[in-house]
Structure formats: structure tokens, C-alpha cells
Input
Amino acid sequence: MTAAIIDGKAHAAALVDRVRVAVPAFAAARGRMPGLAVVLVGDDPASHVYVRNKLARTATAGMRSIEHRLPSSVAEADLLALVAALNADDAVDGILVQLPLPPHIDSAKVLVAVDPGKDVDGFHPVNAGRLATGLPGLVPCTPSGCLILVKAVAGDLGGADALVVGRSNIVGKPMAALLTAASATVTLAHSRTRDLADHVRRADVVVAAVGVPEVIRGDWLKPEAVVIDVGMNRVANPDGTTRLVGDVAFAEALPVARAITPVPGGVGPMTIACLLRNTLLAAHARAGLPAPVTL
Ligand code: NDP
Output
């Protein structure tokens, strides 16, 4: 048996399509399109690529995007003033401040300054607390996308043993909260975990968000496990070119797992699709409208 390869691009395209179809009803009710403001500080090439992709997908979904580019020398106070202006702008439903920010800016201070109702990244402590306590709120995009992929393959997660490797605030911790809410029995592993292989061996679902190339080996996996690989690691080829690999040794996992996400083309596209969904959900919540049932 070879694992099914989970087509993140196809799942993401389907979600973006559901967002696109739901936009006109909002526009008709409010007399405007949902709006996403993206703030990009500095010249980090990867951030520029991410922002370009996010803006292009926003347009595909029929939503309005507003881009603010600031030099890396921008003062923290000026960035906070921009966030305050976006908070006050009724035509802006979602605010995304692309990370990383330059070292002289306190990222936590900026993220806390975003109106939690417009926090489409789901990074504000209010939204993190809502997720942890089971209240409705905006959920971080990458783990949201992972959950959609897991459920598409595994269905009901009640009683499943799920392992999340990595405990960052943007992926690992919210992923563990989402899987817990879905009634999986969740283990959250990190760099101090003893015998990671042993935890992997017991997991029906493995979500890897580590940032270490192929740290999870194929022969650690439980047969028929569902594997979601969040990792995006650039490694060198012998000829000097580079390629992206995940946190899971993909070729080794193929004969063991039931299903696995590829890198690239797995989790990455879902992250952007969930950002668009969050923007539309934020727009509805701010307007006092019920969320579209199709989302
Ligand atoms: P962080 O660096 O913030 O967190 C990494 C986590 O992995 C930490 O909790 C760390 O433990 C843990 N860890 C590190 N080494 C090991 C190890 N050997 N064994 C077990 N755990 C370990 O990373 P992010 O969560 O931000 O991102 C993780 C990966 O996902 C990266 O490759 C990133 O590029 C990718 N990513 C992909 C996205 C997408 O859309 N596809 C979106 C976001 C991230 P400790 O806490 O103890 O230090």
C-alpha cells in the first residue's frame, strides 16, 4: 500500500471557491466588499512572496485588499499608528501584519494592538484564549487548514491518538487545541520531548510543525497514520540548487502512512485559503451577520 497524497492545492481551491461564492451576499447586505489590509515591513524576500500570494488570492475570492508597505526603518510608534488607523477603518475587516518584523519592533506589542475582531491571523491573545476555552473567535490559519485536511481523510477524530510536534503559538499550540476540541486524545511534543519516535509510533494522526528537515522518519510511523507536514525547510541539492522539504521523511513515509501531505503543495495553500475564510468570517461577525453555512 502507498499512502494517498493529500492534495492541499485542490482542498484550498475548493475553500477559496466557497469563500468567493459567499462574498456577493455580504456585499449585497453591506454595500461593500469584505476588505483585508496587509501590512508589510521591510524587504524580507520570503515575506514579499507570501504577501504577493495572499493579495492575489484575495482578489480571486472577490474581496478587496489594501496593501501597506513600510520601510524596515519604520518607527514602532508609526507602525502602531497605522494599526490604529486600520482598526478604526470600517471598510477593513481583516488586518494582517506580516511577520517577521524588524528587530527594533516589538512584534507582541504590534499583534496585541490589532482589534481582535479583525485579527484574521488569530494571533491576538484574546483569540488564543477563545480557542483555548472553546469560545468562538478567529483561529490561526495554518492549524485551521491542517484540521480541514485531517478531517477530509480521517473523518471523525473522536478517540483518535493525535500527536502534534512543535509548540509554537502560531501552529503547534492552536493545532493541539483544535484537535482536542475535535475529541482526539492529543500529545504535544517539542524539543525537550523524550523519545519522540515512541510518541510517533502511537499516533493515528501526526501533525509536524518543527522546522527541522525530515526529522520524523518513516519507520517511526504507525501503519495507516494520517500525516500532516507543516514544515517548510529549504535544503541544498548536490548540484548547488535548493529544494523544499518537510519535517517528515516523505519517501520513507509513503509505504507506511494512510495519507500524507506533500511539501510543497500540502499545508501551504490551505493557510492562505483559511486567511480568506477568516476575513469573510470577520466581516460577517463585525456586521452582526451570521456566518455563511458553507464556510
Ligand atoms: P517554531 O520555530 O516557532 O517552533 C518549532 C517547534 O518545534 C518548537 O516548539 C520546538 O520546540 C520544536 N522542535 C524543534 N526541534 C525539535 C525536535 N528535534 N524535536 C521535537 N520538537 C522540536 O516554528 P513554527 O511553528 O513557526 O513553524 C514550524 C515549521 O512550519 C517551519 O518549518 C515553518 O516554516 C513551517 N510553517 C509553515 C507554514 C505553512 O503555511 N505551510 C506556516 C507556518 C509555519 P521548543 O518549543 O522546545 O523550542
